[in-house]
Design a protein that fits this description.
298 residues, alpha/beta, 22% strand, globular
């Protein structure tokens, strides 16, 4: 009796629909027409003899079995990617396509300095970048959308390999004529929780900043209303409060054109660790360690 197995393309369509929750957006992300993606998923359902997706005009809802199939499809697609990686790793080191997720508080400050040299030194490397928050980046890594992630610790990364890149000190940024005349180094107890501006929830730098202060009351009092470091700097420049910035951003010139002053926090925990992570037992481990060396050299 013949056995008909789902195709990789059908599984990719199903996973894309699960990620985007909309046939049109899933088709766009898959670079096919909506009718092609829909037909592929219907073929998969017909092949399996079950309904995976409940369709209506307003909503796409996966059945309980459909959710299980999506989970299994993610694992199968990741295995297929690793099969390709295995072949890739046997060729020229650090070459071919490599997708890296990078968190927003690193990407605009570190990558512009590193990418030109990396392109010159590794012309056979096709580096594709995804800017995502730490949690989203880990999801991308888990589901095979990214091969590696450049992020900051401390953060719960689960069962992943880690390569240290650098330590990044944290600074307090305040208006030029701050009435408290802050000293050369800012003690955590000098940070006014009523004036503190931080990134919105979802950015790990927010937690790093609060941990550096080591003051529990800041978690409840901080005004977490900005979506980017550049927005925070503009708010401080307009005397709306003070904030905390990584040295990486300061070195990259985020304060240029402003009257904001930044001074280091006087605390042993006032830093974050920049790391590159990837899935444990990946056949491209040697490539990732080479990439980490390139990132450190930058």
């Amino acid at each position: 009796m013949a056995t008909y197995l789902p195709t990789i393309k059908q599984l990719q369509y199903l996973v894309a629909l699960s990620e985007h929750g909309h046939f049109g957006r899933a088709a766009e992300a898959s670079f096919v027409s909506q009718s092609t993606l829909s037909a592929g998923i219907r073929e998969l359902e017909s092949l399996l003899g079950v309904t995976l997706v409940e369709r209506s005009r307003r909503v796409v809802r996966f059945t309980a079995l459909g959710e299980q199939v999506v989970d299994k499809a993610n694992r199968l697609l990741r295995e297929a990617e690793e099969l390709s990686d295995l072949v890739q790793a046997a060729g020229k080191p650090l070459s071919g396509k490599l997708t890296m997720s990078v968190i927003p508080t690193i990407a605009p400050f570190m990558l512009p300095r590193i990418l030109p040299r990396l392109r010159a030194d590794r012309p056979d490397l096709q580096l594709i970048l995804r800017e995502e928050t730490s949690q989203d980046a880990l999801e991308s890594l888990h589901h095979g959308r990214s091969d590696c992630v450049l992020l900051a610790l401390p953060f719960d990364i689960g069962d992943a390999e880690v390569e240290h890149i650098s330590d990044d000190a944290l600074y307090v940024a305040f208006p030029k004529d701050d009435p408290r005349d802050p000293p050369t180094q800012i003690p955590p107890d000098m940070i006014d929780e009523n004036r503190l501006l931080l990134l919105e929830d979802g950015h790990c730098l927010r937690d790093h900043a609060l941990a550096a202060c080591n003051r529990a009351e800041l978690r409840a009092s901080a005004s977490m209303i900005a979506t980017s470091l550049h927005t925070l700097v503009q708010m401080v420049d307009n005397a709306l409060g003070l904030t905390m910035l990584p040295q990486m951003a300061i070195d990259a010139g985020i304060l240029n054109g402003t009257e904001v002053v930044a001074r280091p926090v006087k605390s042993a925990t006032a830093k974050r660790e920049i790391v590159l992570i990837w899935r444990r037992n990946s056949p491209r481990e040697a490539d990732f360690r080479l990439l980490a060396e390139e990132l450190r050299a930058g």
